[in-house]
Write a structure and sequence with these properties.
heterodimer; A: alpha+beta; Heat Shock Protein 90; five-stranded antiparallel sheet; 5 helices; B: alpha/beta; Alpha-Beta Plaits; 3-methyladenine DNA Glycosylase II, Chain A, domain 3; 3 domains
């Protein structure tokens, strides 16, 4: 298996005005390629949550879209900190540490990570004060 | 399979490319100095007609002459049509005048629309999770098929009111000999008939554009009136401001707004709603392009009409209301083929200016790149590249 397509997108901290822009671009790319609607929908939901998480909780970061020749779609969301103190808690539906501002804008319901995990075929998360990396995989039929 | 109801007149076209840019599904291009509409992609939304200032693009229905082809004719009238009437008396005059065009029967569709509205709500209320997308407008369904295939499963699988009624008429004795006509308030509905656009899967024989037949109707408006009463639920179904008032229903009108909502729905951001009611036209079907008058004024008329005796909704068996929704668009290419094409197009796209100026006749540089990849165009057809090359030399 080898990566045949890769694109890296930047996500800025507190950039609420552009919330969802990267997810929309990724969604559009999948439609242009012709990835099946069912897989595209799961990628779209997961990448949106990851992007929003990065905007409201992190100091910005990047989202990388990779596509491999075996039909594996991989999303790597890598932020610059401050890290998640208790990952297990963060994976509990409804648990939220979002700021008041984020909540007022309708974000931060505490469903972000649980939603991402539910939609990805493979899910891994690593976090330290230097940053959090989400590694998500989705399998498109060959 | 559907065919476009938009027709093009070369002699009126000033080649301003406004329609090319306005098309939400990239179905329009300028090829060999004339506008070309991709029939497989066109969703009959009419955005191009709105953008065209030179009458190069119009939507036309069948001619009234076609009535003579049948021994017995029926005219179906969608409820939005009555919104031009300020009083029940005006509605009765309109009803009478339509009949004078030569129809044996004129049937108001509001009772069917009312039943479909109730059934849509029942389906959505009973969904275990997620929500349903109601489409009284065919353009919404076609927009989702073309631009939002992820949402196909959310479409409420009900048929159009005109089809439900036409099927019932066909079941009558000699139903096959009856000519069924549909009076249309917009270009999308013009595509819901066998003629004039050869959409042969529909039960309706001919679609008539109200704007075309109005001069003939007008001649009879003063001649008389015939009693007609409407179904309140049905009349409300064509207007987003009165269709439903419930916290868990999301109602939206206007093409840009429904696109925003469909994008949000793809991210599962609207799960707190049970149902999405979407109207591409402002003020819903009463804002149809082919209806005269201001839709905000017409909106108030609907209230005046529903104040009178209320006709109950139809009571057709549920199975008669359903219509199968295609589960997925057919893309027979393998993953490998899709990626190879994507790469090829991206490589060509790297050479194009990314201005999306449409000067080449294609809507965007990406579509131009796709055409080059298919061998239909050459890099040298790009006007921007040609101009900068000339400069260097």
């Amino acid at each position: 298996m080898s990566v045949i397509y890769e694109k890296i997108y930047n996500v800025e901290r507190d950039d609420y005005a552009n919330a969802g822009l990267v997810s929309s671009l990724i969604k559009q790319s999948l439609r242009t390629i012709g990835i099946s609607p069912a897989v595209s929908r799961r990628v779209a939901v997961a990448v949106y949550e990851a992007e929003i998480n990065m905007i409201i909780h992190a100091y910005g970061g990047t989202i990388t879209l990779q596509i491999s020749d075996d039909g594996m779609i991989r999303l790597i969301a890598k932020d610059k900190g401050p890290g998640i103190p208790d990952i297990e808690k963060a994976l509990t539906p409804g648990f939220s540490t979002a700021s008041k501002k984020a909540m007022e804008l309708g974000f931060g319901a505490g469903m972000g990570l649980p939603n991402i995990k539910r939609n990805a075929d493979e899910f891994s998360i690593e976090s330290s004060p230097a940053g959090t990396t989400l590694d998500l995989k989705f399998q498109e039929r060959e | 399979m559907r065919r476009t109801s938009i027709s093009y007149t070369l002699s009126h076209c000033v080649k301003c490319l406004k329609c090319v840019k306005a098309c939400p599904v990239s179905a329009i291009s300028l090829v060999d100095n004339r506008i070309s509409i991709n029939e497989d992609r066109c969703i009959n939304c009419g955005q191009c007609i709105k953008a065209c200032h030179s009458k190069g693009l119009v939507a036309q229905g069948s001619s009234l002459e076609k009535i003579k082809d049948y021994e017995y004719t029926v005219c179906l009238v969608p409820s939005a049509m009555w919104s031009v009437c300020k009083t029940i008396e005006e509605a009765e005059r309109l009803y009478y005048a339509i009949k004078q065009l030569g129809f044996n029967e004129v049937i108001d569709l509001s009772p069917v629309e009312g039943q479909l509205k109730h059934e849509t709500q029942r389906i959505c209320e009973n969904l275990e999770n997620g929500n349903g997308i109601a489409y009284f407008c065919p353009a919404v369904k076609w927009l989702i098929e073309t631009n939002y295939p992820m949402l196909l499963d959310n479409l409420v699988p009900l048929n159009y009111a005109s089809e439900v009624k036409a099927k019932e008429i066909r079941r009558r004795e000699n139903g096959d000999k009856i000519g069924i006509f549909l009076l249309c308030e917009c270009e999308a509905k013009l595509a819901l008939a066998k003629e004039p656009y050869k959409n042969l899967t529909y039960q309706v024989d001919h679609a008539l554009a109200i704007i075309d037949v109005f001069p003939a109707i007008r001649e009879h408006l003063k001649d008389g009136r015939e009693k007609v009463r409407f179904c309140r639920s049905g009349l409300q179904a064509s207007n987003p401001s009165v269709i439903v008032q419930k916290q868990e229903y999301l109602v939206a009108d206007g093409f840009d707004k429904i696109n925003e909502i469909l994008s949000m729905e793809e991210f599962n951001l609207l799960d707190s709603f049970k149902m999405l009611y979407l109207f591409p036209c402002f003020n819903g079907c009463i804002g149809g392009h082919l209806l005269w008058g201001n839709s905000y004024l017409n909106r108030n008329n609907i209230d005046a009409l529903t104040g009178e005796e209320n006709v109950p909704t139809t009571d057709y068996p549920i199975e008669d209301l359903y219509k199968e929704v295609a589960s997925s668009t057919s893309d027979s290419r393998s993953f490998k083929e899709k990626m190879e094409e994507f790469h090829k197009v991206n490589e060509i796209l790297d050479h194009l200016p990314h201005y999306d100026c449409s000067a080449c006749g294609m809507q965007t540089c990406r579509i131009m790149a796709e055409e080059i990849a298919r061998g239909n165009k050459k890099l040298s057809d790009c006007r921007v590249l040609a101009a900068s090359k000339g400069k260097v030399q």
